[in-house]
Amino acid sequence: MLYTAFILGLLGSFHCIGMCGPIAFALPIDRTSKGKMIFQTMLYHLGRLITYSLIGVLFGVIGKGLYLAGFQQRLSILMGIIMIITVIIPISIFNRFNITKPIYKLIGKVKQQLGLYLHKKSNKSIFLIGFFNGFLPCGLVYMALIGSIATSNAILGASYMFLFGLGTVPMMALAVYAGNFLKVSLRNKIQKAIPIFIVIIGLLFILRGLGLGIPYISPSDVKLHISTNAKFCN
Description:
By secondary structure, the chain is an all-alpha fold. The protein has helices at 2-25, 34-71, 74-88, 91-95, 104-117, 123-133, 139-150, 154-178, 184-210, 221-233. The protein contains ten helices and no strands.
């Protein structure tokens, strides 16, 4: 199911332009040299990918704990259902519970660091802008984290988040070079289509958990059980 991470990142990158685009536009990169522009842009994305991977390790470990607690492959079904529910239920309902309130202070510190490094023109600052950018709250990142939990493995969780971040790179890189090149009307249409793709990915996770014997999409319970045991034995 790792391929769903790249697809989510690639399709969701249009959303990323709206959310993180201003940071990409404001990157203090050296625009006098094409070579330096490419190198520094990649440094920015490398910082984001490292952050996503580190977070993926954490959530992969959480998924492994749930697996060992007896959820096993049904964890994939649960994560798929959560993905779909988060799309169907309006965000305003989630905001009533102040779920993210405990981490507001941390987010404030991250934004403060971003502000400091955005005024420094160096390779180190550009890398750190990407690194801290990865910690900013984002609905699509949350969806990817749900997927990393479903992997039930620290390494696979990191891989899932890395591939998600990799999928966002092409459009975000274009944002750095071309600026705000997408019309608002087109961006709005793409934004409306993103929830549909999230639901599709959620359904794929549910199919995987059902173990219907469909190669690559819904392998049988026995195959999943054997492959997982093999990982633990190694």
